[in-house]
Amino acid sequence: MNSNVSAHASAQKSQRVVLMFVAMLAVGSVAPFLVYPTLLMKLLCFALFACAFNLLLGFAGLLSFGHAAFLGGSAYITGYLCRDLGLTPELGVLAGGVFSGLLGALFGWVAIRRAGIYFAMITLGLAQLVFFLALQMKFTGGEDGMQGIPRGMLLGVFDLSDNIAMYFFVFAVFMAGFWLVYRTIHSPFGQILKAIRDNEARATSLGYDVAKFKLLAFVISASLAGVAGSTKALVFQLASLGDVHWHTSGQVVLMTLMGGLGTVLGPVAGAITLIGLENLLADKVGSWVTVIMGGMFVVCVLLFRRGLVGELNAVLTRNGLNR
Amino acid sequence: MDIFGIPSQAFFGQLLLGLINGSFYAVLSLGLAIIFGLLNIINFAHGAQYMLGAFAALLGLNWLGINYWAALVLAPLAVGLLAVVIERSMLRHLYKLDHLYGLLLTFGLALVAEGVFKNVFGVSGESYEAPEILQGGVHLGFMFLPIYRAWVVVAALSVCALAWYVIERTSLGATLRAATQRPDLVQALGINVPVLVTATYATGAALAAFAGVLAAPIQQVNPVMGSNLIIVVFAVVVIGGMGSILGSIVTGLGLGIIEGLTKVFYPEASAVVIFVIMVLVLLVKPAGLFGKQA
Amino acid sequence: MKPHRIAQAAGLALLSMAAQAQVSDGVVKIGVLTDLSGVYSDVAGPGTVAATKMAIEDFVATEKPSFKVEMVSADHQNKGDIAANKAREWFEKDKVDVASELVTTSVALAVQKIAKEKNRVVLISGAASTAVTNENCNDVTVHWTYDTYAVANGTAKAVTQGGGKKWFFMTADYAFGHALEKDASAVVKANGGEVMGSVRHPFPGTDFSSFLLKAQSSGAQVIGLANAGGDTINSIKQAAEFGVTPKQSLAGLLMFITDVHSLGLKTTQTMYLTEGFYWDLNEETRAWSKRFFAVHKRMPTMVQAGQYSSVMHYLKAVKAINSDDTPKVMAQMKKTPVNDFFAKNGKIRDDGRMVHDMYLLQVKKPAESKTPWDYYHVKATIPAAEAFQPLSESRCALVKK
Asked: Could you tell me which CATH class the domain B2-284 is placed in?
């Protein structure tokens, strides 16, 4: 009896997962013809960034204050490779992801020996170092930033200077990254991460090498954040100090919190909400945007800690629609 | 006479300047350390409270004719009162949760405060003059020391010493420290813990505002003066050890001096040297220089 | 084919040719991309939006064009990426024809590239660096109001020739600061002066005391401030505090009337600066500035006056050829001399530089100032031919040598 019920429940669940992916693919394929594609591409890049960040905070319980280092660092690397060395875009993005993965390994190795706020502060400190390097090194262009990054020809064949073509490239990158995060969360590795997040001592006592798991989660998170940054650099054909500034690290925390920590779609919802609102309001309220963002943040922390998706899930569960 | 290739005049001058900056760092990190050490809250609004203190002095002078000396007392009081409101209405609900939420709330509040002031006052900021008696300077031989800066060191260190004494040596301080560790017991002993907590947060904020008033005559009073400073102060507190009062004071002063020396040899790095030190210290002494192992 | 059909076809052909020389959609859309809330918001900011509005209203009232003129504005927050993205959105989605103002060098450089790609006009009023008309030059850009060469040339030359031979530079550590220091150093040396040393401070900086200390012990007579906005203001304040002045004098290499207003005459008196416009120059400038003051409540900076002037010149060019086609408008603008309250006998060169007279100014002592905003003595007019970098030294690919 019980196995029947749980089999039914898990079949329902995988049905819903498939539905989710299909819906995302459908909406994503139609959207560029309805909404300004460059805005959509920005949303997708930040959504991927937030998903990567959520993997670390929502699922491994590690708050990093320096994630901008990965977003921006790989943007510069990809920019340099594509503009000055003529790499094709997909190789540029890949290289950016690898670079951030390595940087993440370095950050992680230094930071993981500490926990909680100390971990966060170390990541902040290391990110500030990256910022300093970005500011001082010649190839980044310092305050001017790296400009004129070519979008290039995907695989040497598809011209990405067309906005629609570029959009589908970005969408593909996003879906691949999102799928990777999803698989990671729902794998045994992901389960162990959650266990570490919930009770580290117990996980250690069960014999897991907690540091190694944390490090791996950090590297995956950093690489995907890097991929997001590289893609963004190609979309806007720019890499700048704003990408490595600690405000950007703060932004991704905001996005993830607003969307829902520890949920699958939360970071996507949070990114869309934040960037969308910024875009919508910027022309109407000018510099009051910061105040509104701050206010929303405060409200979220006090009343909607589960974030948009978290609250939605709770409502659905209460009404028996969630299992 | 040259020290490391720098004329001794310049060298000692920079050291003294570093000491002055260090005094600021000390007062600011003291406030942060008090709030964290005693309340376990990471007060990201500290920079905004520093800014509010400076603005309170400026607006107090322009609108109400309140002079500098009165502002030194009234601005912290005003900001402290605001902090009481924040604590009672918002922060209070977050104590039982992860540190993260207190941090995020105060971060959001800082954004709001900065945004409002930016819109109303613009970013250029306004001048605020030091009182007549503190203007001018003294020739020390190796440098010209503005009297106001000397006053800053004296005022800041006095306040730090006072705070340290109250927390570490008086029964009030002992009660506070006990209240963080076992609030239930302290409450059972008849002491109103929530009031203590509110008062502590307000005191931390007031300290930030006090530093703001001290800073007003030195730099333009502008809405982003706090946000540029806040992460540096965080680094100072972390290096000193998050809960240690003495640690934050000593580290603040020390870091001011190190920053000053960096400006002599490699000025471009002066903004980042504190973070380098932070990472190094945390690798070697994980709980900070004076911190207690959790 | 029947004759009247041929006539019809010919008539249609003629009509479509005429239709090509028309303003697209019948609307000219001007985008004002500026710093609305940051360090340059007083220098440029909302004032430039107001100036643009004034220009459009005046243009429509006096020229009565056949097309509509609209304006959009946005805040780039001094960030190149925000500016580039906004410009891209304007050009791709909102049919904006020209991006203007663009204070902050990194903003201007980024938008120049986007505009070239999308074939739209760029009118730069606020940005400073000579890179705009040298390394980054293109044929869709006009650099209107001033640049680092002009301000450095004016001030550094005057001060050095006036006796300030030994210089020390305090430089904002980014491209603009470096450019300003470079241009000013060259002028100092060319006029028989000596650069005793320099120090770079982080941008933006707050505490300049240690850098000022270096300057004090350098033996220099003049401290050149190769920075702008809040950095300049703080440097000057702290220099006074540390007794650097009046023993050594300060040269604000890029200063605006709003900086002087913010600091007060007591602190800035006797300082030299070079600007492209001063509200109190003559009857024409006074008349325009009074109108501007009525709207903005502050006297115009050269950036704001330059914004009005450049927008007006653009609109007149569009009307003259009845087209907003970018290469044609650019050609028309370059063909037409600039003669308004802002610039007399101004001309746009091949590299995009609008050359016009600059003014060497000295800040009045408090007792000398009779009315609000009465801040400057006009020491000299630097004629257009001398004020800007000569084409012979240009590093721009468009300049035929």
From this structure: mainly alpha
